[in-house]
Amino acid sequence: MKKAKKSSNTDALQVRLTELEERAAKREIHVHYDMLEAAGLKLNDGICKINGEVHIFIEKRKSPTEKIEILEACLRKLLVGDDIT
Fold first, then answer.
1. Partners of residue 46 on adjacent β-strands
2. pTM of the shown model
3. Torsions phi, psi for 43 (to 5 deg)
């Protein structure tokens, strides 16, 4: 029975993550899941503008729960109109 609960929870997390990605897409915000590491440097998840387009970068090795938290925080920040450079 525990496996069914875990699968159900994983499915629910994936549904929530997909909802957030769709919300971002409707606002023309690009969401990227990449390895945010280069030449021994670890980069932070976050928002940036590239050629006038808004992008959210999230470390792809994070758990679905962490991805959801980051995406929710970034979308909240964009909705309140914080300046993104």
1. 57
2. 0.83
3. -100, 155
pLDDT in tens, 56-77: 999 999 999 999 999 999 999 9
Question: Could you identify the residue written with the tokens 């670890």?
Answer: 42
DSSP string, 3-69: HHHHHHHHHHHHHHHHHHHHHHHHTTEEEEEE--EETTEEPPPEEEEETTEEEEEEETTS-HHHHHH
Helix (H, G, I), strand (E, B) or coil at 42: strand
Q: Which of 76, 27, 33 is nearest to 53 (CA)?
A: 27
Q: Domain limits of the chain? A: 2-79
